[in-house]
Amino acid sequence: MTIAIVGVGESDISWRSNRPVGALIREAIERALSDAGLVESDVDGFVIEGMGTNRFTPVDEVAFSMGLKERPFAAQISIAGSGVVAAPKLARLAIEAGLASVVVVYYGLSLSSIEGGPYSFHAEDQMKASLEMPFGWFGQPTYFGAMAARYRYQYGLDSEDLAVIASTAREYAMRTPGALRTDPLPMSKYLDSPYVAEPLRKVDCCLSNDSAAAYVITSIERARDLSKAPVVVAGVGLASLPVTQTQYFTQNPDYLSTAARKSGPMAMNEAGIGVTDVDIAELYDCFTITTILQLEDLGFADRGEGGSFAREAGIGAHGALPVNTHGGLLAHSYTGSANHVVEAVRQLRGERGDGQIDDVEVALITGLGIPDHATLVLTRDR
Predict the structure, then answer these.
(1) In CATH, which of 3.30.450.50, 3.30.390.30, 3.30.565.10, 3.40.47.10 is domain 3-114+207-380?
(2) To the nearest whole percent, how much of the chain has pLDDT over 90?
(3) 3-state DSSP: the chain helix, strand, coil percent, rounded to 5?
(4) What is the pLDDT of residue 56?
(5) Secondary structure of 114-162 in the HEC alphabet?
(6) Residue 308 vs residues 62, 148, 265, 304, 312: alpha-carbon distances, Å
(7) Which pTM does this prediction carry?
């Protein structure tokens, strides 16, 4: 069965919201349903991530707030950014089995209201708390900074390789309503940014904010009866590495390769495309180094050449592969790749105004939920 995304929505995005995350999620869902031309009573299914900030906004609470009388299907999949990208895999199964007809996928977070912010999650891990944190081995910048340092040692990594990713994100954000970081980032300003975990600087790190996003899935037949052109779910890949999240940053024998090397081919094979068919890529960019790693793992660049690909082939609006065309997690907002899905749908519909990329037919979206990775291929209804 072919399924399609028929509506997308985002909450208002802010550094610190005066509303709870549940209210942000409700706002995103309402906007996604309105975008689809549907109402809350049409919803009979949910797919959300199985781990992460959604633990504070479970499906039963969201369904109750929507006034739903029945909730025949609800499921969780994967973790930490990968789940929201892989969600169409379960949505398709539910729709095929007749368990649901209209499925909502949502993701929301209020990092400003969580004591310890984004680092608090890893602090709950007893192994890290007992054996790693006392020695300073703690926090995402430290983890990914070590990856970048290893990459620099093994392949070479210039400041320009990281800077082009951060600065290009800003260029896209300047053309995206609601993006949080819209000031230009020339090389001089990049080099003035302080190190957080060398070689990563502050501007190499994703944003910390309050936001939510949602999208709506139904069958292609029903989608074609709605007011807006459907965006077809052409391929979904979900893969993992044989380590736990706890082990990934310290006990991983393949430090510089993500499960994108498996999820990417899965999704592209299902869609019947190759890397040269991709018009835009919305890659999970929690740090600039993850963009480089995924460009290589997905096959857009050879190993050790992700940075030079970004600089020379180009990831800007007129480059060989426009990447994170809304500004991504580095400049738009951190919304766990849900905002990446929203952006891809709008690009495929041609709705992005000043931020529109020409002739977008195929979009590739990724979610990195260490040790998991998801790849989603969306296309126009062709």
Answers:
(1) 3.40.47.10
(2) 82
(3) 45, 20, 35
(4) 61
(5) CCCHHHHHHHCCHHHHHHHHHHCCCCHHHHHHHHHHHHHHHHCCCHHHH
(6) 44, 15, 22, 9, 6
(7) 0.96
